[in-house]
Amino acid sequence: MTHEAGRSDTVGNPQGGGDRGPLAALPPGPAAPDATPPEYRAWLEAFRRRIQESLVYPSAAVRRRLVGTVRLEIRLRESGELGRVVLLRSSGHPALDEAAIRTVEAAGPFPFPAGLPPRALTIHLPVVFELR
Fold it and tell me: Which helix (H) or strand (E) holds 79?
């Protein structure tokens, strides 16, 4: 599944109402620290936190006790605008896959802070849905 919103560098290894908070979480730390240029690590961690804080666990998935990890490829333009989101690996539950993609699409743009050179990036992000 590809959602199109456009040289890119890889810096990481992720309808209806829903519930926010402790039901939905991302694993701690950068998604593939070895692949992340050092100057982008803090920005990538802030990016991951922004996705985590925006993540909505679909109500139907909570009722059905669905859990899983969605692996996304997120391509950002130099401007920080979302280029596209690609589903690399399904959680096995379309509702969770779609919720992860919608979260990324709604959370942008992702501008770079002053002092960090803007560049097109490809981020591989695991998005974990777990019930606590």
Answer: none
Which tens digits make up the pLDDT trace of 70-111?
A: 999 999 999 999 999 999 999 999 999 999 999 999 998 999
Q: What distance in Å separates the CA atoms of residue 83 and residue 97, rounded to the nearest whole number? A: 18
Count of CB atoms situated within 10 Å of the CB of 81:
13
Instruction: Output DSSP code: residue 40.
Output: G
**Encoding tokens for residue 100?**
């992860």
Q: Where are the domains of the chain?
A: 2-129
Among candidate residues 38, 123, 126, the one with its CA nearest the CA of residue 76 = 123
Count of beta carbons in the 10 Å neighbourhood of residue 6: 13
Contacts with 3 (C-beta within 8 Å, 6 or more apart), sequence order: 84, 85, 86, 101, 105
CATH code of domain 2-129: 3.30.1150
The full length of the chain comes to 132
Question: pTM for the whole thing?
Answer: 0.73
Cβ within 8 Å of residue 117, ≥6 positions away: 39
